[in-house]
Amino acid sequence: xxxxxYIAVMAGVTYLIRMLPFTFFRREIKSGxxxxxxxxxxxxxxxxxxxxxxxxxxxxxxxxxxxxAVALILAWFDLPLIAVALAAAAAAFVTGxxx
Length: 99
Description:
By secondary structure, this protein is mostly helical. It has helices at residues 3-24, 32-56, 61-76, 81-98. The protein contains 4 helices and no strands.
């Protein structure tokens, strides 16, 4: 198939995904449960995609756990994202060099 067909199909799918909620939810959603459910969906999806990637990224569960622990501790103290990421990568690297 041509690349243009692939691009057209993906454009259509992307458009439908963005258009369908506007079509089905024309009025304001009043249900508290549904509003809170829709509010937390992006965080749940992000966590579901990120957490497995963290533990399979280094090839060793020990180095991944060390990096994750350092990242969680530094994030708890509200350090900037770049500092948390660099420290987590360094912790995983140092832990991996001892294994």
